[in-house]
């Protein structure tokens, strides 16, 4: 089903959420446009990093030169592989790039241990296959075939979670720009990529060893690393805006408390780096302490405060929600979080830090 409205949809695709901005960019776009693209490179860049003169918001917080390199990669015959730590907005960036280039970000393959070539290339309507044999009518195109046939960008999320032999089904589409359908006779058995087709893949650096890519496939991608947000104020603003939007969609009318978010972002950054703001060494958590995870925790804190007490989430709620994050990967992470709250929060100034230190008793097993 094609999504054309945001009403009642939990998360509409980027081309629907920002349809007005895309329309303004198309109307004002007078720069050279690569074959098959919906926007020029300049307009596509403005869609992602923002343009105040056209009322286009900034959607990705990161190095603008990364966006330039990614767009140039997509204009070539090589695919684009975004790598980085979990939660660094690789999937968001791939969605925005696909929406800008093709006007469609929904041709998505979710990689995993159970992903098969059928889910990537094509499968069959078996009732029609039995009745008619292999025909174009009985063919069920998957994202790769549809992207090649219509000249669209295909997104491949978590490519290294797929088995190696499944990954390598991309070799011919990326090098020869053709997909063979041997069951179909004649010209129908060869699908040639139209202008505008390319592939954006993502891979977490923590998971790349699960099913590392073959050298042949690596050569067909340009690699770009997406780094965590370096600036505290930028990360805090992002967490505040994203968590506020999520809370609003969840029916919460009270915005998140900024002092609680300051504590949250500080804790995440220190637990991620293994060092406090005054330089004290500390144990890093094995769990992912990313900006995306911070947004999720801020959302949970706001929900907990609103639906349990009818108020904004507090630092006590924060401790309870942090426990769920810390317990994901290793039982030892919960003990590390407890030591962090006991040893690295009492010396800080501000009532919110005192509340956090006192709320450490709310941790499971405390």
Describe the structure.
This protein has 366 residues and is of the alpha/beta class. The protein folds into two domains: 14-225, 3-Layer(aba) Sandwich (Rossmann fold); 232-362. The model has no long low-confidence stretch (mean pLDDT 91). Helix 15 (315-326) packs across helix 17 (351-358). It has 17 helices and nine strands. The strands form three sheets. A five-stranded parallel sheet has the order 2-5-8-1-9. The chain has a two-stranded antiparallel ribbon with strand order 3-4. A two-stranded antiparallel ribbon has the order 6-7.
The CATH superfamily of the largest domain is known as P-loop containing nucleotide triphosphate hydrolases
- Given the structure, what is the number of helices? 17
Provide the residue-averaged pLDDT. Answer: 91
User: What is the annotated CATH architecture of the largest domain?
Assistant: 3-Layer(aba) Sandwich
What can be said about this structure in brief?
The chain has helices at 14-17, 19-28, 41-49, 64-74, 90-102, 117-120, 126-132, 143-150, 164-167, 171-175, 215-218, 232-249, 258-273, 291-309, 315-326, 331-343, 351-358, and strands at 79-84, 108-110, 122-124, 139-141, 153-157, 178-180, 190-192, 198-204, 221-225. With 366 residues, it is of the alpha/beta class. It has 2 domains: 14-225, Rossmann fold (3-Layer(aba) Sandwich), CATH 3.40.50; 232-362.
């Amino acid at each position: 089903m094609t999504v054309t409205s945001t009403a009642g949809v939990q998360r509409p695709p980027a081309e629907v959420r920002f349809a007005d901005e895309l329309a303004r960019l198309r109307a004002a776009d007078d720069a050279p446009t690569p074959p098959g693209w919906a926007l020029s490179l300049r307009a596509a860049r403005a869609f992602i990093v923002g343009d105040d003169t056209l009322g286009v918001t900034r959607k990705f917080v990161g190095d603008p030169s990364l966006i330039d390199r990614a767009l140039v990669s997509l204009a070539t015959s090589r695919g684009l592989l975004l790598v980085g730590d979990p939660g660094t907005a690789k999937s968001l960036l791939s969605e925005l790039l696909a929406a800008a280039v093709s006007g469609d970000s929904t041709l998505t393959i979710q990689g995993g241990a159970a992903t098969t070539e059928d889910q990537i290339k094509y499968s069959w309507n078996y009732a029609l296959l039995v009745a008619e044999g292999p025909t174009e009518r009985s063919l069920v195109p998957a994202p790769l075939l549809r992207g090649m046939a219509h000249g669209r960008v295909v997104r491949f999320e978590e490519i290294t979670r797929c088995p190696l032999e499944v990954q390598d089904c991309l070799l011919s589409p990326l090098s020869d720009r053709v997909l063979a359908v041997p069951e179909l006779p004649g010209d129908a058995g060869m699908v040639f990529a139209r202008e505008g087709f390319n592939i954006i893949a993502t891979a977490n650096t923590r998971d790349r060893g699960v099913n590392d890519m073959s050298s042949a496939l690596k050569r067909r991608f340009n690699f770009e690393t997406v780094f965590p947000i370096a600036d505290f104020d930028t990360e805090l603003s992002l967490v505040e805006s994203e968590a506020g939007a999520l809370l609003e969609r969840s029916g919460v009318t009270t915005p998140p408390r900024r002092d609680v978010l300051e504590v949250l972002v500080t804790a995440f950054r220190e637990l991620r780096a293994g060092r406090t703001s005054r330089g004290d060494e500390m144990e890093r958590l094995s769990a992912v302490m990313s900006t995306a995870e911070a947004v999720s925790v801020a959302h949970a804190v706001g929900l907990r405060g609103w639906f349990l007490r009818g108020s904004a989430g507090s630092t006590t709620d924060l401790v309870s929600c942090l426990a769920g994050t810390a317990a994901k990967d290793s039982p030892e992470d919960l003990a590390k979080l407890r030591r962090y709250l006991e040893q690295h929060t009492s010396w800080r100034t501000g009532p919110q830090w005192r509340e956090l230190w006192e709320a450490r008793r709310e941790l499971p097993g405390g």
